[in-house]
Write a structure and sequence with these properties.
Number of domains: 2
CATH superfamily of the largest domain: P-loop containing nucleotide triphosphate hydrolases
CATH class of the largest domain: Alpha Beta
Mean pLDDT: 86
CATH architecture of the largest domain: 3-Layer(aba) Sandwich
Radius of gyration: 22 Å
CATH topology of the largest domain: Rossmann fold
Helix content: 25-40%
Number of helices: 11
């Protein structure tokens, strides 16, 4: 999707590493319901931070507060050093917001939509270059209502980027997008990171978060259940690490277990699990055993997946705090806080 001469998407990377988003003890309430309850985290320029959590965890309420569309009941939030509510006018031209769905007039084409949004900014992206970047040049004149779901998502991404933002909020950016489109969106996000843009990503697709995020915050019942890099989260979860790999189905797992010194299980046809943290010695022994039997080795995973870590952490948090959270009245995503 990206062109050889892609346009600059954001600010100079000179500010990379500085704090772009601050969330300190955030509280958000809807009447008697507390959607966010003392949440704290930060995000830096040149970083992709993923907010993960089950429905009703408080992700949307948090993001809407950071965008300036919801006033906090307690705590402190800052985006680029500004209060998103009281200094919203100074902030709005420096951030980009990607909506999960809707928000565009059905008969408006991608070209007209990007041109319209570009007129709101003093130094916008070139609309044609931006449509090329997100792979929409071929449907630039097609009404929004006739675009596929993935094309509508890519248009939402283009509109979030047209003002060269310093902070970008992405809501489910790859939902409904085909594999080629997903790859292009990942490339755009990687370019944003490289140019010093802070990217705050919310998604239910843990595999996407695993590919895209530098750090992750897992929210449960309005609190941060865990945060850190993928390796740090795996350590926090406290569960035993595993090794997984693909090969021919029906391997002699007893012989393999004896060779590598740990239990080996065939979880499904051609998919195996070793209950071990994945030392170099184990990996070498596994490869040697397979080579002796002329068996293939594919998709070797020597660390816990984000999905495993997430389920372990959320499950532990749910056991410690079992009360379900009622839904709130979110601004733009069907009322989910």
């Amino acid at each position: 999707m990206a062109t050889d001469e892609a346009p600059a998407l954001g600010p100079s990377p000179a500010g990379a590493g500085t704090t772009a988003i601050e969330c300190d003890g955030l509280v958000v309430r809807y009447g008697e319901t507390t959607a966010v309850n003392g949440l704290s985290f930060d995000a830096r320029s040149g970083e992709v931070l993923a907010l993960l959590g089950p429905n009703g965890a408080g992700k949307t309420s948090t993001v809407e507060t950071l965008e300036g569309y919801r006033r906090p009941a307690g705590g402190r939030v800052r985006v680029l050093g500004l209060d998103p509510t009281t200094e919203h006018g100074q902030l709005v031209g420096r951030i980009g917001v990607m909506l999960q769905r809707g928000g565009i007039y059905p008969m408006l084409s991608p070209r007209r939509a990007v041109e319209l949004f570009a007129a709101y900014y003093p130094r916008p992206q070139d609309p044609v270059e931006l449509l090329d970047l997100v792979g929409l040049r071929s449907v630039a004149a097609t009404p929004w209502r006739n675009l596929s779901g993935g094309e509508q998502q890519r248009l939402s991404l283009a509109l979030a980027l047209v003002g060269r933002p310093e902070v970008v909020f992405l809501d489910e950016p790859t939902a409904g997008v085909d594999p080629e489109g997903r790859l292009g969106i990942r490339e755009v996000i990687a370019e944003l990171r490289g140019q010093g843009v802070a990217v705050l990503l919310t998604t239910h697709e843990l595999a996407e978060a695993e590919r895209l995020a530098d750090r992750v915050v897992i929210i449960h019942h309005g609190r941060a259940a865990a945060s850190g890099t993928l390796a740090e989260l795996a350590a926090q979860s406290g569960a035993a690490a595993t090794v997984r790999f693909g090969s021919a189905s029906g391997l002699d797992v007893r012989s393999l277990s004896a060779t590598v010194g740990v239990a080996v299980t065939e979880e499904s046809a051609g998919r195996y699990r070793l209950d071990d943290a994945g030392s170099p010695q184990l990996t070498a022994a596994l490869a040697s055993w397979l080579a002796e039997r002329d068996a293939p080795l594919s998709d070797l995973q020597t660390a816990r997946s984000l999905e495993e870590t997430y389920l372990s952490i959320v499950g532990s948090a749910a056991a410690a705090e079992p009360e379900p959270e009622p839904l709130g009245t979110g601004r733009r995503r069907g009322g989910r806080p």
